[in-house]
Amino acid sequence: MGSTIELWIDQLLEITQLDGTLILLITIPLAIIQGFLGVFPFATLIVLHISAVGLALGLVFSWLTGTLSALIVFLGCRFFFSKPFNRRWGARLQKYEKWQNYMDKYGIWTIIFLRTLPIMPNNLISFMSAISQIKLRSYIWSSILGNLSHIWLFGLISSSIIMPETDVSFLLITYIIFCLTLTGIFVAKLKLGKASKRGGF
């Protein structure tokens, strides 16, 4: 199924002849479809962006489309499509029940972690967030940071294959700083929360 969709995307690009920033006219709708149905990997769109506009701008486009898609899916599942989505994906969610518990406990930090690493499909992350108690503002921030982390990491891994001549040392150093900063904030908030429960603050 995934290979068929990717072939269809290639044919669509060939027919429309869209390139450069105009690639967004195709990839934004595709990102929304991917966000709801997960019928092809989001990495396909990242590769399309990088191929069309280069590594740096391609990663930015992928981050923006991924975040927009995550927001639309979250709002759709929370307010309009929760029942049909639950009928389709409810059984699969049982497999990730522990992550739902982590999401309820740690909120945005679990979403950032899940979006960074390919532990579960993006559409399930959005749906699990929609049925959790997380607030819209918190979800937006978690998606911005989580998608940024995912795209950044993918760019580092894939650039050696897509653009082997590209120097990614700056991307690597800044990504390490980014991850260390997020980890530090998480640990600090965790300790602050424990101290507050003990009456320390």
Automatic annotation (TrEMBL):
VTT domain span: 40-154
UniProt membrane topology term: Multi-pass membrane protein
Keywords: Cell membrane, Membrane, Transmembrane, Transmembrane helix
Keyword Cell membrane: yes
Any Pfam family the entry gives: VTT_dom
Cellular localisation: Cell membrane
InterPro entries from the UniProt entry: TMEM64 (IPR015414), VTT_dom (IPR032816)
Predominant subcellular localization, coarse grouping: membrane
Keyword Metal-binding: no
Superkingdom assignment: Bacteria
TM segment ranges: 22-48, 55-81, 106-127, 139-162, 168-188
Family, per entry: Belongs to the TVP38/TMEM64 family.
Protein name: TVP38/TMEM64 family membrane protein
Organism: Paenibacillus eucommiae
